[in-house]
Amino acid sequence: MLSKSQARTFFLGGTLVTFLAFIGLTVYSLSPQNDQTNHDQITEGVIRGKHLWEVNNCMGCHTIMGEGGYYAPELTKVYERRGPDFIKAVLKTPIPWQPRGRKMVAYEMSEEDAQALVEYFQWIGELDLNGFERIVSPLSQDK
Amino acid sequence: MKYKSQKVAYWFFALAILLFSLQIIYGFIMGFARIGMDGLHEFIPFNTARAVHTNLLVVWLLTGFMGAAYYIIPEEAQTELISVKLAFVQLISLALVGVVAIVGFHFNYWEGRKFLEIPRELDYLVVVNVLLFLGLILGTLYKGKRRTTTALVLTMGLVFAALLYLPGMIWFDSQVTDSFFRWWVVHLWVEGVWELIMGGILSYLLIKLTGVDREVIEKWLYVIVGLTFLSGILGTGHHYYFIGVNKIWLVVGGVFSALEPLAFLAMALFAMYMYKKGEKSHPNKIALFWTIGAAIVSFIGAGLLGFAHTLPQTNIYTHGTLVTAMHGHYAFWGAYAMIVLAIISYALPNMTGRKRYNVNTGHYAFWLTNIGMLGMTVAFGVAGVAQVYLERKMKLDFMDVQNEISIHFVVLLLCATMFATGVILYIIEFLRFGQPTDEAVLGENTTEE
Ligand code: HEM
Ligand code: HEM
Ligand SMILES: [Fe+2]
């Protein structure tokens, strides 16, 4: 029968081995040659867009790459689906956007801020998401 | 209860319950918004309600864990807590940081990173607070006469939980790396170190409630937490399938996260087996219900419902839909909410000296919350599966689908009402116990294992 010290060894050993493997895989998947994100195309605008995405907690309603709230549409492919002008209009309007009854916050953004978010969405839209981009993409509707 | 300083736990439990009730109010706000009743949109838009709902959840659970530690550690270490005064300082500062964060969420003072919305400036205060907490716990253990496995596993869980908060505080320019390290906090908490905390509390409660030999219980505790880390660390990969990192995670995450239910299964079997084996029948039946209930419901909510969408072939369709919300509710409820309610139900009679062990209100609270939460899970699940088919398979527009499934949120709200009624009964019981007293400590004749 298993003894307490064997059980402890199982715990400590298993933890150590999987932890090291996890660190190894992290280094591997974040290394530049495995980049799937066009990391070099993260411009000032994209960074500013990400900042705005965070300070306004857009993720509290929308998902991006499938992460966020489930109250409002997935935005990974929004650039492709709607184009820059539509996106800017939604962000700049002073009255809540609510095309089908559900309200978004009226952010009344400046042109520069709206532009930064457009660039952010453009960058997000180009990511290689291991196939998920096809599930949420408008192009997959044709297939 | 044998040590006067254990009484400080009561105030942590009281704060936890208070935050829990606020959490539910914000749940209702979101539920109503989803059936078109969004009258509060101007003041509490959905993203505010959501941030408040989930952060209150995390904070009340952590407050409950802290209370549990202040209650359990002195008894396990057989010594008084090193400083009750500092424990109160820690409690009050925790409450203050929590209040500032929650109020801030209503004024766009936040950081929109799912589950980690607390802004970075406040994060530093959280760190200081948690360091104070850990100092008190570790100091007490160090001074203590006895070091038990139960205390060790519980403390390890708390220390690791604190360490893992740090990767969530780093700024990244890339949304992808940001997400990657956000999961080090969120996933490695709930599917890693929090399970140690849960295991520690569960083991303590089983020792007390069933009278089974400590050595036997603690041996299996090691096996359980061993299974947790063996599967859970690499299981983080199930969040890396579709966020722009290497495909290797589809294999690693798929295989290891599929093993994660084993730890929860082991926990459920462990609790039921010890209950059967125990020759002692502790009069606190309500605590026993919550304890065994936590072990079983966590297996269903985390183990079974987690497994249901963890393989990449399924997750590619369910990722980021209401299917996730279904699992999120039942897993958090079963594993962490129920274990906190279990330790509170166990500790209250001992701290207050009122042996309200088998009162009807307590039983109703247990059943109403559990049946209500099961109903809510089913409502989220049905809505989620419908969403997956209509939106992801048939490619209907997002809002068309949402309008189609809004009826399930009427059901959700009905079940949530039942759930909330149960919570109100739990709070009534909590209040009826009154405050802790020293007489309760001195008059206590706890049967030691
Ligand atoms: C007590 C333990 C657990 C809790 C509290 C919990 C909670 C959660 C929560 C809140 C989310 C949503 C995260 C987000 O999208 O930001 C989530 C996602 C997920 N959980 Fe769990 N979980 C637990 C255990 C498990 C287990 C054991 C498994 C697998 C067997 C699992 C599989 C998943 C998967 C695959 C997702 C991603 C869903 C998606 O792609 O949208 N969970 N969990
Ligand atoms: C009256 C009771 C409750 C109601 C009506 C309610 C409702 C909701 C709603 C509508 C959401 C947002 C889903 C979305 O983004 O669209 C949510 C999120 C969430 N709630 Fe609740 N909730 C309640 C109680 C609870 C309880 C007791 C817990 C934990 C034990 C909990 C844990 C969560 C979690 C973890 C999330 C995030 C899920 C995710 O992102 O996948 N809720 N809740
Ligand atoms: Fe996970």
Outline:
With 143 residues, chain A is mostly helical.
**Name of the top-level CATH class of the largest domain in chain A:** Mainly Alpha
Trace the largest sheet of chain A across and list its strands. Answer: 1-2
Overall form of chain B: globular
CATH level-3 fold name of chain B: Cytochrome C Oxidase, Chain A
Bound compounds: protoporphyrin IX containing FE, fe (ii) ion
Residue-averaged pLDDT of chain A: 94
Binned strand content of chain A: under 5%
- Count up the helices of chain B: 16
> From the 3D coordinates, which CATH architecture of the largest domain in chain A would you assign?
Orthogonal Bundle
| Overall number of domains of chain A | 2
- What helical percentage do the residues of chain B reach? over 70%
Largest sheet properties of chain B: none
How would the blueprint of this fold be written?
The complex is a heterodimer of chains A (143) and B (449).
Chain A: H1 4-30, H2 44-55, E1 63-64, E2 67-68, H3 78-82, H4 84-92, H5 111-125, H6 132-136
Antiparallel strand pairs in A: 1-2
Helix pairs in contact in A: 2-5, 4-5
Chain B: H1 8-34, H2 46-77, H3 84-105, H4 120-143, H5 149-165, H6 175-210, H7 214-235, H8 248-259, H9 261-277, H10 285-307, H11 312-318, H12 322-352, H13 360-393, H14 398-405, H15 407-433, H16 438-443
Helix pairs in contact in B: 1-2, 1-3, 1-15, 2-3, 2-4, 2-5, 2-12, 3-4, 4-5, 5-6, 6-7, 6-9, 6-10, 6-12, 7-8, 7-9, 9-10, 10-12, 12-13, 13-14, 13-15
